[in-house]
Design brief:
The chain is an all-alpha fold. It has a single domain, classed as Ferritin, core subunit, four-helix bundle (Ferritin, Up-down Bundle). Helix content is about 65%, strand content about 0%. The protein has 8 helices and no strands. Helix 4 packs antiparallel against helix 7 and helix 5 runs antiparallel to helix 8. The longest helix has 27 residues. The protein is globular, with a radius of gyration of 18 Å.
Amino acid sequence: MNAAPEGGGRELPQAGSADETGARGPGRRGFLRGAGGAGATLLLAACSGEKDLSSRSPVDQASVIAHRVAYPGDLRTVALAVALENQAVGVYTSALDAARAGRLGTVPRALTSFLTRAKAQHTEHARAWNTVLTRAGKPALTDVPLSDQKEITATLARATSAADAATLALQLEEQAAQTYLMTTYSVHSTSEIETAATIAPVEAMHASVLRFILGEYPVPDAFLPVDRAARTSLLTV
């Protein structure tokens, strides 16, 4: 198998190896700290958004304001969730294409099987989140209006090994799981809470599978943290 590039992902282990030394342990205190800081983070994001808006042209300002009205309040969190799912689907599609083209070297069957199944599940998740939007009378999202989309796309384009692709996928899964956990206590609609609560565990299991493939201990945390949860400030609409 090709080695991961300098500064890139990790080299996949040989079958039968395991590495449990990288386990993180923020524990209950870390979880509560993340939850307690959510309000302050959202406030700072709002202030930042005001500054970003003031630097735009009048036409751009009108566009941004229109979209913020389109997804007000808790629906911005739902729109963020759809965007994260669409992003994962796109990354997994491109990773599978790269694997088939031989650009990732030798790719374990476990990884291609995971990418295929997880891609389908992320598609279902996006559909579920979009249903929440449309039932609220808002337009569904079919693209990836996230400020980090170019960076994520570039990271995948630089991938030269299966480990690179798995590492990026792990980043997305951890972010999604933690975002949805935070969503369960930051929104008010029952449908939004139920959707987040039923999807978050699946994303966490996805992350566990990827850690195992990478040779890491699959469940490093006693409690699911939220320090990597995405904020609505990532949305570009």
